[in-house]
Amino acid sequence: MSYTQKQVTDALHLVKFPGSDKDIMALDMVRNIKIEGKKIGFDLVFQKSDDPQIITLKKLCVSAILKFVDKEAEIKGNIKVKAVHIVDEPGVLPNVKNIIAIASGKGGVGKSTVATNLAVALANAGAKVGLIDADIFGPSIPKMFGSESARPSLIKIDDKDRIEPHEKFGVKMLSIGFFVDPAQATVWRGPMASNALKQLIEEGNWGDLDFVLIDLPPGTSDIHLTLVQTVPVTGAIIVSTPQEVALADAIKAISMFEGAGVNVPVLGMVENMAWFTPAELPENKYYIFGKDGCKKLAEEKGIDLLGQIPIVQSIREGGDNGIPAAVNTDTVTGMAFADLASKLMSVVDKRNADKDPTKRVEITR
Ligand SMILES: Nc1ncnc2c1ncn2[C@@H]1O[C@H](COP(=O)(O)OP(=O)(O)OP(=O)(O)O)[C@@H](O)[C@H]1O
């Protein structure tokens, strides 16, 4: 019999950081949990390699595992302490003004739909925009742009091979879906997926851009860590439906971005599938996934709500037929995405005025 991840994370949720009311899971200090039979191990990530709480916290973790998982669990010696280093050097993408991560906790809430339409709406507003499909295991950007057959070419710049991003509706984009059969990528192991993302970022000929949007996979994964270790992410947008199960996962995504070792400000939330209005009853709103769940969560967390996007047939059709709804600027949905783009531009301006630029992080010891 082996223990479950949940048993371990539940136990570690009970370990509070000394002097704080937050636990080490909420602070995103636990990474790489490995369980083999009775053996449990994980990385414990601190902001500084000489944090005075290292010894105490290691002991608290050992006690929590022995008490709440199993007194026979082999945990001693299996907690590796790691430290976050802020890397103070211009990273890759030096000519990109803002790198925005689009994330969700739960899958299927419309993150790629929002990323696609937001990218098009930003381009319509005159911004120079790039879009990177970081959902390596399930890339959907090629389909949403009607570009499944695009094959970006390699060009030589300063004797180095560079990938020329595909461009459509004013958006420069790269996706692993342009290079491998998506069915192949779904079985890749973590390091292969992380390397693929690094290549899309580092080897793309991105040039000067106002925004690069990164469409992340759902949940929290190695891909998220690869991203913050590869580029300084200006901020994150969290997409969720108003449904409770989706909101619970959205909270985890918010904690991950704001937690130790990542430190990326959350710029706002987007409530997708906020309501449904049938064409024949335009005055009626049906709150299929619940009412204002995301709005309330954003208020609670002190985060801006950037927009509420209803369930609209043309949004789904746009995703399927490769012409994003935001392309049609004179429709109600086109205007909703234009409004979302303008809100994003103003929160990014505010973030850049109020806060220091984000720095890339490295986790070492
Ligand atoms: N507001 C909306 N109205 C109608 N359909 C929508 C809306 N938002 C998303 N959809 C549809 O819901 C489905 C899931 O959306 P999408 O692929 O964007 O979700 P996701 O969160 O990126 O999923 P994944 O878990 O694959 O990352 C798609 O078919 C999309 O067209």
From TrEMBL:
Question: From what superkingdom does this record's organism come?
Answer: Bacteria
Output the GO biological process annotations, alphabetical, semicolon-separated.
iron-sulfur cluster assembly
Which InterPro entries does the UniProt entry name for this protein? FSCA_dom_sf (IPR034904), MIP18-like (IPR002744), Mrp-like_CS (IPR000808), Mrp/NBP35_ATP-bd (IPR019591), NUBPL-like (IPR044304), P-loop_NTPase (IPR027417), YlxH/NBP35 (IPR033756)
A Pfam family annotated for this UniProt entry? FeS_assembly_P
Give residues annotated as binding ATP: 105-112
CDD domains the UniProt entry points to: Mrp_NBP35 (cd02037)
Q: Which keywords does UniProt give here?
A: ATP-binding, Hydrolase, Iron, Iron-sulfur, Metal-binding, Nucleotide-binding
Transmembrane stretches, start-end: none
Q: What GO molecular function terms would the record report?
A: 4 iron, 4 sulfur cluster binding; ATP binding; ATP hydrolysis activity; ATP-dependent FeS chaperone activity; metal ion binding
SUPFAM superfamilies reported in the protein's UniProt record: Fe-S cluster assembly (FSCA) domain-like, P-loop containing nucleoside triphosphate hydrolases
Signal sequence span per UniProt?
Answer: none
Residue span, MIP18 family-like domain = 6-65
**What PANTHER family does its record include?**
IRON-SULFUR PROTEIN NUBPL
Q: Which purpose does this protein serve, as stated in its record? A: Binds and transfers iron-sulfur (Fe-S) clusters to target apoproteins. Can hydrolyze ATP.
* Subunit organization: Homodimer.
For this chain, the family text in UniProt reads: In the C-terminal section; belongs to the Mrp/NBP35 ATP-binding proteins family.
Q: What is this protein called?
A: Iron-sulfur cluster carrier protein
